[in-house]
Backbone:
C-alpha cells in the first residue's frame, strides 16, 4: 500500500518508519486532511511487514499545537444553502468527532511500537496523539497541556481515556480540570514521558536509538508483546495468562526467530531475526 499526504510524511529506513507531522507553517495543527490521512498512514505501516517500529515526530517549531479549529469546524453556511435541523447538525458533528477519534485510535492500534519524539508545543489534540503512543520522549522545551477546558469543551478524542493509564489519577484530574501547561521536567516526574533531552534534534536521535534497539529484536516477539499488552487492558489476569500461553504455543515456539535466537546464543553471536 502506497501512502502520500500533504500534511503527513512517511519515511521507512532499516525496519524503522518515521511518521512526520508535516505542516510546519501551522505548527502541525490537525486539519481535516490530517484526520483523513493518519489512518491511511497507519494502515500502510501495518501492511508493511518490514516495519518493526515507528517514530512519530513533528517538523518545524512545534510538535503539535492541537486542532485546526477553522479546518475541522468549517466556515459559515453558504448563502442559499439548506439550513440543517438541530438533529442533523448534531449527527454531522458526531461524525466529525468519531472520525477524529478513529484517526487517533489508529495509532494506538498499530501492531508495532510507536515512539513519540516531542518538542516544544504538545497541546490539546497533540496530547490525544501522544497518549496513543507506546513511549513518549521529550525535549527540554516541550510544553504539555490538556487545553480543552480553557476553550469551553470536554476533551473527546482520547486523552481522558488513555492518560489515566499513563499517569496517576490526581495528575490526570489536575491537568484536565485546569487546562494548565506543564513543562518537560514535570511531565517526566509524573511519568508522562520516559526521558527528557536537551533539544529537538537530540530527542529525535534518542527516539531513533530506541527504535533501533527494538528493531534488533525478534519482530514476532515484539508484535506479540504489544498484542498482549493491548489485550491485557480488557482481560482479567487469568484470561490474559491463558491468552499469553496460547500465543507462546502457537507462535513463539514455532518461529524461525526463536531457532535463530538459540543458535546465536550457542554460537556467541548477535542474532539476525527475519520475523518468520
Residues:
Amino acid at each position: 500500500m502506497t501512502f502520500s499526504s500533504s500534511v503527513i510524511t512517511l519515511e521507512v529506513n532499516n525496519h524503522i518508519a518515521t511518521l512526520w507531522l508535516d505542516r510546519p507553517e501551522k505548527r502541525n495543527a490537525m486539519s481535516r486532511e490530517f484526520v483523513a490521512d493518519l489512518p491511511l498512514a497507519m494502515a500502510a505501516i501495518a501492511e508493511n511487514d518490514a516495519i518493526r517500529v515507528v517514530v512519530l515526530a513533528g517538523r518545524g517549531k512545534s510538535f503539535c499545537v492541537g486542532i485546526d479549529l477553522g479546518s475541522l469546524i468549517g466556515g459559515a453556511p453558504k448563502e442559499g444553502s439548506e439550513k440543517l435541523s438541530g438533529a442533523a447538525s448534531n449527527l454531522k458533528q458526531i461524525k466529525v468527532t468519531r472520525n477524529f477519534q478513529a484517526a487517533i485510535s489508529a495509532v494506538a492500534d498499530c501492531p508495532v511500537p510507536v515512539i513519540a519524539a516531542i518538542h516544544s508545543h504538545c497541546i490539546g489534540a497533540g496530547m490525544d496523539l501522544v497518549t496513543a503512543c507506546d513511549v513518549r520522549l521529550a525535549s527540554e522545551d516541550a510544553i504539555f497541556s490538556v487545553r480543552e477546558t480553557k476553550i469551553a469543551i470536554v476533551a473527546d478524542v482520547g486523552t481522558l481515556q488513555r492518560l489515566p493509564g499513563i499517569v496517576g489519577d490526581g495528575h490526570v484530574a489536575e491537568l484536565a480540570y485546569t487546562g494548565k501547561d506543564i513543562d518537560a521536567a514535570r511531565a517526566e516526574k509524573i511519568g508522562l514521558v520516559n526521558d527528557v533531552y536537551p533539544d529537538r534534534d537530540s530527542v529525535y536521535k534518542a527516539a531513533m536509538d530506541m527504535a533501533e534497539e527494538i528493531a534488533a529484536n525478534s519482530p514476532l516477539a515484539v508484535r506479540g508483546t504489544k498484542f498482549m499488552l493491548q489485550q491485557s487492558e480488557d482481560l482479567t489476569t487469568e484470561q490474559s495468562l491463558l491468552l499469553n500461553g496460547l500465543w507462546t504455543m502457537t507462535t513463539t515456539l514455532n518461529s524461525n526467530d526463536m531457532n535463530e535466537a538459540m543458535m546465536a546464543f550457542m554460537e556467541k553471536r548477535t542474532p539476525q531475526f527475519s520475523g518468520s
